[in-house]
Each structure stands twice: as structure tokens, then as C-alpha cells.
Amino acid sequence: xxxxxxxxxxxxxxxxxxxxxxxxxxxxxxxxxxxxxxxxxxxxxxxxxxxxxxxxxxxxxxxxxxxxxxxxxxxxxxxxxxxxxxxxxxxxxxxxxxxxxxxxxxxxxxxxxxxxxxxxxxxxxxxxxxxxxxxxxxxxxxxxxxxxxxxxxxxxxxxxxxxxxxxxxxxxxxxxxxxxxxxxxxxxxxxxxxxx
Length: 196
Fold this sequence. Notes:
By secondary structure, the chain is α+β, with helices and mostly antiparallel strands. It folds into 2 domains: 1-35; 59-194, Superoxide dismutase, copper/zinc binding domain (Immunoglobulin-like, Sandwich). The chain is built from 1 helix and 9 strands, in the order αβββββββββ. It has a 5-stranded antiparallel sheet, with no helix packed on it. A 4-stranded antiparallel sheet has the order 1-3-4-7, with no helix packed on it. The longest helix is centred in the first third of the chain and has 36 residues, at 3-38. The radius of gyration is 28 Å and the shape is globular. The protein starts with a helix and ends with a strand. 27% of the residues are buried. Residues 22-56 have low confidence and may be disordered.
């Protein structure tokens, strides 16, 4: 083999080796991307597509409380114990407030004597407490079950068992938003307050 042919052959081998390395790297990156995405839940539906639970706004302790919203129509009610609540909550008291104003709806919960350092979930419901609250109130009855189509107010009680949270929504509720129910994270209903 002449020196000229050997040089061309050597360049070809180096180029082929580089190309194979590049293709192997791309394949590895594609496999990593596929495997890291494989655990992602693809069961998106309707208007909730690409909405993750962690992205849902369910309360802000620094928001203006319902009773401090200027020019609002305000409803306030005491929480009552529901039949499904355990004896742990016999001494729990508190109020729910709902303000309807030009910028939407604000709901504030204030509670005492909950279990300390415990997570709770709350929702505005479409029926009064006497009817068990019924379904969650939805601004669009055909829409999804996450905010902003529903009002969720989630919070964690303090060391002393106190609970406080305010949730804001840019939509105004109508007369079918009747009550607020506080539940455990296992969705056991504890307390209910009639708002309208």
C-alpha cells in the first residue's frame, strides 16, 4: 500500500470511529431522556392538560383575608362538627369567610384546636351543610376539578393546632356556592360552614 493510500485509509478509519462515537452518544442521550420521562403521567384530560398538582394554587397565608377586602359582599359562618369527624375534633372551632368582590372571590379559614402540625384540605361545596355539602362548587359545571374552576383551601395546622389560610380566585361565585368543608388528607370530612 502506498503512503498516499495509507493516509486516506487512516483518515477514513478515524472519521468512521468519530461518527460511531457520536451516534452512540446520541443514542445514550435519547435513552436517558426516554427513561427519565417514562415515569411521567400522561393521562392529561380536557382543560387540565399539562396541569400538575404541585402547580395548583390552593392558598396564600399572605393574601388579603376575606374580611379585609374593601367593597366586598361578605359572608361568615361558624364551623360545625360533621358526623364523620373523630373525637379528636370535638373541641375544634373556627370560622369561614367568603368575600365576593370586583376581582373575584376570596375565602378565609380560621380554626383552633385542630391536631397540631397536620395537613388539611378544604373546598367550597355546592350544597349546604345539612345536605353534607354535596359536590365541589365549580364555576363551570362541565369543567375540571382543579383550581381555578374550583376553590381549594389547603393548610397545615400549627404547633398549637391553629389553622389559617386564604384562597383567592379571579371568578365570582354565584348563589350555588353554599358551604366550605374541611377534610383530612384522606378526605374524611371534619367540619362544615354554611356561607350562603
